[in-house]
Structure formats: structure tokens, C-alpha cells
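Something for you to look into today, if you have time. Just paste the record in under my message, thanks.
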Amino acid sequence: MLKIGVLASGKGTNLQAIIDAIRRKEVPAEIGIVLSDNPDAYALERVKKAGIRALYLPAGRFKTYLEERIEKNYINVLKKEGVELVCLAGFMRVLKRDLLNAFAGRIINIHPALLPSFPGLESWKQALNYGVKFTGATVHFVEEGIDSGPIILQAVVPTKPDDTPETLHRRIQEKEHIIYPLAIKLIAENRLRIEGRRVNIEGSGLNICCE
């Protein structure tokens, strides 16, 4: 049983999708700990209701990343809980080298766009403003760059002429809630092989495409 740790800063909708998939026994994993840098994150309420251990760990004085000493606190808690895979679920901090090295090749993230297009914040707005016909969601491994790690899974969402940022984001999230638990399942089943930037899936047969 793969033990995962989840880092979340906000509403935790992807966290809930993971919790639900595990409960349905679709994903052979368990959540060992949820950590948040935001004491008001609704993600903490979700795990409280689910009976999962959670901690609020202050992020320090910087807005975009964790202070070095605090990042070490995150590492220590994750290691103490026996976490094997770290899942970022709306965690609004850039991870630095210490945490990346502590869980090398074992940190994944969900991003609301088809990377490498539209990295960074509010990517659904970026896509809509750019006028693309298709956008979507990406699960990827985390490295030092912003949303730049090897891609595990992607799902495509077409844009519509009457889309607003809110309507497009909702449809992207529906895909996120499918592919993020699936990516964890593939890792738990040891079905991923990384070759350079390519992530190969053994016995894939996956077909996640458009609405």
C-alpha cells in the first residue's frame, strides 16, 4: 500500500478526489498526512471529516516559497509519517532543492493546462485569453522549474465560444479529478518508467481525451 502525503493550500478539490478514489478502492494507497501552509484552507476541513491526520505548518515570511528551515520541517514530518509519494494539490509554494532531493522523483503535481503551454498561475485564464481551441489538465513530476517536470497524464478540454474563466475552470477540474487519482494508481502499481523527459506507462491502454 503506497503511503502518500498531500500538500494543499486551498479548497482541496483534488485532495477530495484522491480521498474518494481511495475509499472506492480504485487506488491502492493511503494518505498518511496532509500538510497546509494556510490555516484557513478548506482542505483541512476535508481531511478532518475523513479522519485523516493533518497539520498546518506556517510558511514563513515569503509569499511564493517556504523558508529553508520550514521546508526542513515539512521534510521531517513527511519522513516521520513514512510518506513515499508527495502529491501537491493546489499547494501555492514553489518547492526548493531540499524537499525535491528528499523525495527525488517522488513528487507529483496537477496543473490546469496542457503543459508545456500556460505554466504558472491561473492557466485557464491564460488559455482563454490566448484564444486556444483546446486546453486541459496535466499531471507531472515536480522538478526545480515551474510546472516543468516530466508529464505523466494529460486530459483535453475544448474551449467554447461562450466560456468564461469560471466555466472553463470547472470543466478542467472535472478532468483533474479523474487523472490525478489515476496517476497515483499507476505509481502505486509501479507502472511508470521515466526515460529522459518521457514517462512510459506499462500496459497503458489509457484513453483520456476530450469531453
